[in-house]
């Protein structure tokens, strides 16, 4: 269970309090610059919170050693780039870095876990493909497999579907959902959030303005206040679907 | 030749002429070993810099570290504070850190080509000051000294120099090899490495200071030899792939072999005249640099 307790950072996060229960997928929503990425970075201990604390099953992430934290928290960034000539398997094995027993060799376990992670990301046939030859969707799945190979308790996703077409967006989030790992995911697409998230947290200018199940939170009133858009929310077999109005010109 | 070496190691009682013994034991052998040590060290320094700075054009020479070290060494000689390889190496280390610090301060986190631009500018500045200092103190062998420090040569490699450089090389290799996995984690950038459990700030500084120290000691015995650190890591990576656990040992080996061959060529092609070894490494290195630059531009 992830608890974010009154976390502030610069002027970007203001006393953010929320939690992610074990096994759930929580969507982190809000307009550009509302602090989604900063909050994820604070949870990953990439930036130190000025005030408040982030705890993972009671342990303050700022006090956990980097390698120990990397065995518990994995981050999937918006997009990943490298100039190196890596195979998909090489990338996935990077996820074993914090678990190394030997500085030198990959253990038998590491290879088994990497293969299992490839399977979970639906990439088994891609193991020996070169990173440079992958499409955007395949790259994000490779990064997901790398994150799963870390065997984390908590998965942080920073708008992982930003550069993907709709088919690959749906595929990536269903794979995340299927993995069963507790997840906090910053998302731009509100309809993706209503489709996959157990609950959502809405940030506006660094503050939490709403928390709860997507159907309760994502109302026309909130969308107008936070995003400044006019929208109607429709029920589609119990799942809210948001339709936006064209702004007056 | 082998008889001489065996004789010195106490393996044979065969008698060799004194002159021959002297040439092999005092001149040829230290020079070959010196080339191996300098080649291995520069190549590994280049490989580490390329990974840590995520700049495929990084190399101790192109980033100004070698020229800074040469200036530092010449500075120590001029001030006359101390003599011997140790003092030279210390001065070179100061110069190397200063030059590298300047390059980082000037270029910050800009694109790889801009960092190299800053490096070349600082290298030129250090080279100019080095030449100036050598001529200013009226070194009787000014031209020769300038060529030695700025183009590099293994002509001064002797047992004393080796006694300094070899332990430093071995210590640096041990330290760098121990970080091989952490270096792999830099593939997707520093922040990605941090989320994989690498203490990136600590590792980066540890490795950059180590490579600066290594470069400084090597420059103190051989001057600023360019491009070994650029081309060898790329050539070896092409063969082994980017995993540092395999890459680094082979880069060390490749760098050693490369410089032994190039130095032999520098010594023998125009016999009895000798080319500065840096002239030959530049002849091989500059086309390689242009190739890498073009490949980077096309991405």
Structural class of chain A: alpha/beta
Mean pLDDT over the residues of chain A: 93
CATH C-level category of the largest domain in chain A? Alpha Beta
Shape of chain A: globular
Strand order of the largest sheet of chain A: 6-7-8-3-9-10
CATH topology of the largest domain in chain A: Rossmann fold
How many domain units of chain A?
Answer: 2
Strand residues, percent of chain B? under 5%
The SSE string of chain B, one letter per element, is HHHHHHHHHHHHH
**Gross morphology of chain B:** globular
Pfam families (chain A): ABC_tran
Domain ABC transporter (chain A): 2-230
Keywords (chain A): ATP-binding, Nucleotide-binding
Organism (chain A): Paractinoplanes aksuensis
Structure notes:
The complex is a heterodimer of chains A (about 250) and B (about 300). Chain A has about 250 residues and is an alpha/beta fold. Chain A has helices spanning about 35-45, 65-70, 90-95, 110-120, 135-150, 165-180, 190-195, 215, 220-225; strands at about 1-10, 15-20, 25-30, 50-55, 60, 75, 155-160, 180-185, 200-205, 205-210, 230-235, 240-245. Chain A has two domains: about 1-70 and about 150-215, P-loop containing nucleotide triphosphate hydrolases (Rossmann fold, 3-Layer(aba) Sandwich); about 80-150, no CATH class. Helices cover about 30% and strands about 25% of the residues of chain A. A six-stranded mixed β-sheet of chain A has the order 6-7-8-3-9-10, sandwiched between helices. In chain A, α4 (about 110-120) crosses α5 and α5 runs parallel beside α6 (about 165-180). Chain A is globular, with a radius of gyration of 19 Å. Helix content of chain B is about 75%, strand content about 0%. Chain B has helices at about 1-10, 20-50, 65-80, 85-105, 110-135, 140-150, 160-180, 180-185, 190-195, 200-220, 230-240, 245-270, 275-295. The chains are: A alpha/beta (about 250), B mainly alpha (about 300). The interface of A and B includes residues 66, 70, 75, 82 and 97 of A.
């Amino acid at each position: 269970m992830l608890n974010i307790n009154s976390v502030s950072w610069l002027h970007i996060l203001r006393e953010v309090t929320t939690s992610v229960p074990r096994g759930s997928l929580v969507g982190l929503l809000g307009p550009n610059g509302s602090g989604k990425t900063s909050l994820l970075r604070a949870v990953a201990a990439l930036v130190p919170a000025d005030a408040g604390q982030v705890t993972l099953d009671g342990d303050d992430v700022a006090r956990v050693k980097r390698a120990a934290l990397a065995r518990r928290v994995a981050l999937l960034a918006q997009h990943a780039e490298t100039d190196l000539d890596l195979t998909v398997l090489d990338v996935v094995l990077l996820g074993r870095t914090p678990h190394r027993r030997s500085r030198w060799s990959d253990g038998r376990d590491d290879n088994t876990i990497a293969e299992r992670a490839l399977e979970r990301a639906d990439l088994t046939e891609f193991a020996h493909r070169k990173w440079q030859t992958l499409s955007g969707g395949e790259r994000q799945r490779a990064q997901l497999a790398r994150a799963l190979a870390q065997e984390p308790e908590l998965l942080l996703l920073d708008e992982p579907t930003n550069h993907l077409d709709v088919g690959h967006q749906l595929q990536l989030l269903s794979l995340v959902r299927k993995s069963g790992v507790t997840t906090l995911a910053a998302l731009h697409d509100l309809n993706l959030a209503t489709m996959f998230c157990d609950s959502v947290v809405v940030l506006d200018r660094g503050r939490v303005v709403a928390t709860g199940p997507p159907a309760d939170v994502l109302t026309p009133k909130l969308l107008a206040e936070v995003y400044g858009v006019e929208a109607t929310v429709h029920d589609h077999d119990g799942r809210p679907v948001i339709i936006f109005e064209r702004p007056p010109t | 030749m082998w008889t001489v070496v065996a004789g010195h190691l106490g393996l044979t009682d065969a008698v060799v002429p004194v002159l021959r013994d002297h040439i092999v034991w005092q001149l040829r052998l230290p020079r070959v070993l010196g080339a191996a040590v300098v080649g291995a060290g520069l190549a590994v320094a280049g490989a580490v810099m390329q990974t840590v700075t995520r700049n495929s054009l990084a190399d101790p020479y192109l980033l100004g570290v070698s020229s800074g070290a040469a200036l530092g060494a010449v500075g120590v000689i001029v001030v006359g504070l101390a003599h011997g390889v140790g003092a030279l190496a210390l001065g070179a280390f100061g110069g190397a850190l200063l030059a590298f610090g300047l390059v980082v301060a000037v270029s910050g986190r800009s694109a790889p080509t801009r960092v190299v631009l800053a490096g070349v500018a600082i290298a030129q500045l250090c080279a100019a000051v080095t030449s100036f200092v050598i001529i200013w103190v009226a070194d009787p062998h000014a031209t020769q000294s300038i060529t030695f420090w700025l183009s590099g040569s293994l002509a001064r490699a002797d047992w004393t120099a080796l006694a300094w450089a070899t332990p430093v090389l071995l210590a640096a290799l041990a330290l760098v090899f121990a970080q091989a996995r952490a270096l792999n984690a830099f593939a997707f950038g520093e922040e990605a490495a941090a989320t994989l459990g690498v203490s990136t700030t600590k590792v980066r500084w540890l490795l950059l200071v180590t490579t600066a120290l290594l470069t400084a000691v090597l420059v103190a015995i051989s001057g600023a030899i360019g491009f070994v650190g650029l081309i060898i890591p790329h050539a070896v990576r092409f063969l082994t792939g980017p995993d540092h656990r395999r890459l680094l040992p082979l880069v060390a080996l490749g760098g050693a072999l490369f410089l032994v061959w190039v130095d032999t060529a520098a010594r023998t092609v125009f016999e009895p005249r000798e080319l500065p070894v840096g002239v030959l490494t530049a002849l091989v290195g500059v086309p390689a640099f242009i190739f890498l630059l073009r490949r980077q531009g096309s991405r």
